[in-house]
Amino acid sequence: MSMKASKWWFVCLAVVLVFSLAACSGSKTGNSEQGTNTPETGSTPPAENQTSGEENEPAEDDQKQLTLEWLTYQYGPVDENAAVKKKLEEMFNVKFNIWYIDVTKREELLGAKLSAGEIPDLMTVYSSADLVKFLDQGIITGYTEEELNQYMPNYKKLVDKYDPNIWKYAKFGDQYIGIPSIADGGASLATAWRKDWLENVGIDKIPVTLEETEEALYKFRNEDPDKNGKKDTYGMSVSGMTNVYGAYGVYPEFWTVRDGKMVWSGILPETKQALAKLAQWKKDDIITPEWVVGENQGGYWAVSHDFVNGKIGYSTHGMNYHWNPDLTKETGGAPGDNVKLTLEVNPDAKIGYGQPPIGPDGKFGNITPDFVGTTYMAFGANADPEKKHRIMKIWDALYGDFDLWLAVKWGEEGVHWEHGPDGVSVIRTEAYSQNDAQAKDGLNITFVPFDQPDFRYQLTNPRSLEVRDELFVWEGAGYSDAKKRRCLRNRSI
Ligand SMILES: [Ca+2]
Fold first, then answer.
1. Domains detected in the chain
2. How far is the CA of 456 from the centre of ligand 1 (A)?
3. How far is the CA of 229 from the centre of ligand 1 (A)?
4. Residue 66 forms beta bridges with which residues?
């Protein structure tokens, strides 16, 4: 196998879901260290203060104006004189030629341009497999570790803070072939309980271990937790099984690295143990007979109708935010769909939040995305080192300077956005509530297509972050060495 082929294999099997990262190193609080430069004063961004250390090139001079062909995902054309575009052009002595490609035909239209040799200097690439493909086709060019350290020190620091391994997925041989993104990782699926049911069957604390969970689920089936005099409730349906597998440290639908080899988790001995437990629960009628078709009966996929309608009392269905508690009074945050609908069906229902149950060997976990983003920015093959370095400086300033980021992503306070009632969160004004209006002014993802979690947290009510940590982040939750094919990623993750 050639080196390139084996690398592709690695990229394709790259970890999307590393389950041991539930709490990881990602800070949930804003980092005020980063927003030190104010763009209004025209001060130089952090990286610009550094001199070129390239031995083989003349010292760079930002006095030379460069035209940058710029392609991010665009919801609409950007005005030639958009304020943030002008601002960045002045700060960095560049002219942006911002490409607008109808997003519904992006692949086709971009493909035609690329094959005609029209290549943007910076472009979004939507998978690591595409990155490698574009490199092979001579469409993109990479950058070195030295260039990274010199021109994007702030971005490097930001990525490293969440997970230094993120860089691995953008590395090909001895160079980086894309700028990686940081995904919103770290939190597990919700482990939701009908707390009123627990109380009704005499359990006064949310179960922690698999044994305690089992006891509660049996009672949900056998002790009339909804007190209607009928045996019409079950412990759980299909989503709760994720937690049972987690209690044995596996997830059967993922690959696992075992003794240095990639093996399908479905055949591991731990999976067999988990399946034996589930078979017993099935035999004892604890799991709904309809578990095969799932607990969602159509409509919005994230709703657990079985939970909402009081048929089961335990679920991990949907994403964790679909179980967000009602924080309307505290932060203005609306409850998650499952919470809202459960209370609509039964206003006396109480929802409790547990952790993924701890199994016989101390393992626990469920699906917990890591911080490795799936989207990259890549430098077009026509971008000479001078252009590449200028772009890196721009990127580093945008992601290292809170005020600049705020101005470029959100725009001007009072015009493009206002603070929410909590005084922390930000809300688009009516005039700029639509993507194309934001694009016209060069906002949103025109210049900052990737998430900047630290800055986003600065605009998030601390109480919301606290609640997320309390309810959905379980340090150590994980399936050891679980891997999932990146290419198979879907909405259920
Ligand atoms: Ca009943």
1. 3-186+371-472 (3.40.190.10), 191-366 (3.40.190.10)
2. 45
3. 5
4. 94
Tokens 């039964």: give the residue: 346
Counting every residue written for the chain, the total comes to 493
220 CA distance to ligand 1 middle (Å): 9
pLDDT in tens, 52-105: 444 444 445 688 999 999 999 888 999 999 999 999 999 999 999 999 998 888
Q: pTM of whole model > 0.85?
A: no
CA–CA dist 240, 234 (Å, integer): 12
- DSSP 8-state code for residue 353: E
CA distance 390 to 66: 8
Confirm if 154 and 399 have CB atoms less than 8 A apart. yes
Cα-to-centroid distance, 129 and ligand 1 (Å): 51
| C-alpha 464 to ligand 1 mean position (Å) | 35
Q: Residue 471 Cα, ligand 1 centroid: separation in angstroms?
A: 28
For 80, counting Cβ atoms within 10 Å of its Cβ (0-12 exposed, 13-18 middle, 19+ buried), the class is: exposed
Q: How far is the CA of 278 from the centre of ligand 1 (A)?
A: 23
Between 269 and 154, name the one with better pLDDT.
154
The rounded Å distance from CA 231 to ligand 1 centre is: 5
Measured CA distances, 43 to 40, 395, 399 (Å): 8, 16, 16
